[in-house]
């Protein structure tokens, strides 16, 4: 097997149930089995679908800010509650619990790394 570098900003890395890693196109498939590692260069709220809530029903999600700064928001669990905001500066990460609705907003252009099981993930307009 030949080892080569990967451009994490133009491909996702899929961790198969059998323990292998495969680089592939940047396609988030909520029906896909196995874990997925995703890196993004983001400049606007559209790049992080800031107008939507996101949930991962099958696993926790690691959201890491590699450069820049982001804010992670959790949807209130009780009706009428307030969103919880967590500032995530460069070099820090948050573990989003399985089944917790969340969204991201940017403080400016940033690089983000995310790891989760895509199976069962959903988006919902804010």
Task: Please tag this protein with its features.
three-stranded antiparallel sheet, Jelly Rolls, mainly beta, six-stranded antiparallel sheet, 126 residues
Fill in the CATH topology.
Answer: Jelly Rolls
When the domains are counted, the total is: 1
CATH C-level label: Mainly Beta
Q: If helices are DSSP runs of H or I spanning 4 or more residues, what is the number of helices? A: 0
Secondary-structure element order, N to C: EEEEEEEEEEE
Determine the CATH superfamily.
Answer: Jelly Rolls
CATH architecture identity: Sandwich
Cα Rg = 15 Å
Largest sheet: 6 strands, antiparallel
What is the helix fraction of residues, given as a range?
under 10%
The gross shape turns out to be: globular
Q: Quick check: average pLDDT?
A: 93
| Derived structural class | mainly beta
Please report the total strand number as a whole number: 11
Strand percentage, roughly?
over 45%
Descriptive overview:
By secondary structure, the protein is mainly beta. The protein has one domain (12-125): Jelly Rolls, CATH 2.60.120.10. The protein is built from no helices and 11 strands. Strands 2-1-3-10-5-8 form a 6-stranded antiparallel β-sheet, with no helix packed on it. A 3-stranded antiparallel β-sheet has the order 7-6-9, with no helix packed on it.
């Amino acid at each position: 097997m030949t080892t080569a570098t990967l451009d994490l900003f133009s491909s996702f890395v899929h961790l198969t149930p059998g323990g292998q890693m495969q680089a592939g196109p940047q396609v988030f498939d909520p029906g896909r089995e196995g874990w997925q590692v995703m890196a993004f260069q983001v400049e606007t709220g559209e790049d992080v679908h800031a107008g939507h809530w996101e949930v991962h029903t099958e696993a926790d999600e690691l959201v890491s800010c590699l450069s820049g700064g982001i804010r992670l928001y959790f949807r209130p669990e009780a009706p009428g509650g307030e969103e919880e905001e967590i500032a995530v500066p460069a070099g820090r990460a948050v573990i989003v619990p399985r089944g917790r609705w969340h969204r991201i907003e940017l403080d400016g252009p940033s690089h983000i790394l995310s790891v989760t099981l895509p199976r069962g993930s959903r988006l919902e307009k804010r």
